[in-house]
Amino acid sequence: MGLWPEWQWNEIQQVGTDYTDVAEVQRYESRMQQFRDLAAEDQAILAELNLPPNARVLEIGTGTGHFARTAARAGCTVVALDVSPVMLEYAASRAREENLTSIEFRHAGFLTFSCPPASFDAAVSVAVLHHLPDLWKAVALHRVHEVLKPGGRFLLRDVVFSWEGGNHAAAFDGFVNGLPTSMRTEAARHIAKEYSTLDWIMHGLLERAGFNVLRAERTQASFVHYLCEKAD
Ligand SMILES: C[S@@+](CC[C@H](N)C(=O)[O-])C[C@H]1O[C@@H](n2cnc3c(N)ncnc32)[C@H](O)[C@@H]1O
Description:
- By secondary structure, the protein is an alpha/beta fold.
- It has 8 helices and 7 strands, in the order ααβαβαββαβαααββ.
- Strands 3-2-1-4-5-7-6 form a 7-stranded mixed β-sheet, sandwiched between helices.
- Strand 1 (56-60), helix 3 (66-73) and strand 2 form a beta-alpha-beta unit.
- It binds S-adenosylmethionine (SAM).
């Protein structure tokens, strides 16, 4: 952090779940498969991005790299970012096993990647933005907007809360109890220690960053799926 201003958020530090823990990384994909159909999810995201042939795609917070591999198999060139070197090494080894050479794995995140403006046809980020407080979500979304080509799509999916009449406890209990038992401790830690925000704040942040929100759909376990587009 030495070269950065004193006010810069350190996104490399792990918040909540520690994705630099080798055991956590090895467990991650099988844990996710308990409540996500990753293959179907990744194919559906790819279809929504409306990509041209040989598209360049940015993935922020690639984790084990399952989406990046799906996009590479479909002919895309992918820049896949993560702040955890352990996750990146795991993702890179999975890509090597498949001889996928069109994914560039980079140790960087929303606030630290360096890419030319308007250099990607699309961007994707799933279950990552809640690692940043809202102030820094705003900065992150502006940075993603900047590197997209006009008309480029951004698929954002994350845990985003909503409640009526101030009943936050019901919303939080619903989130925790809606997950498999093996994930409930982590879900409670997510609420207590991470930075998931409210749906109306997220919507505003996306629009203020310059995106048209084409679709916002609440899916499972408090996940909201935002399909956004940078205006032409
Ligand atoms: C819950 S995992 C999601 C992984 C993958 N996107 C998925 O859907 O399976 C969160 C990932 O985001 C990474 N991460 C955390 N903060 C980040 C940031 N500011 N920029 C990029 N990646 C970040 C973590 O290291 C971790 O690999």
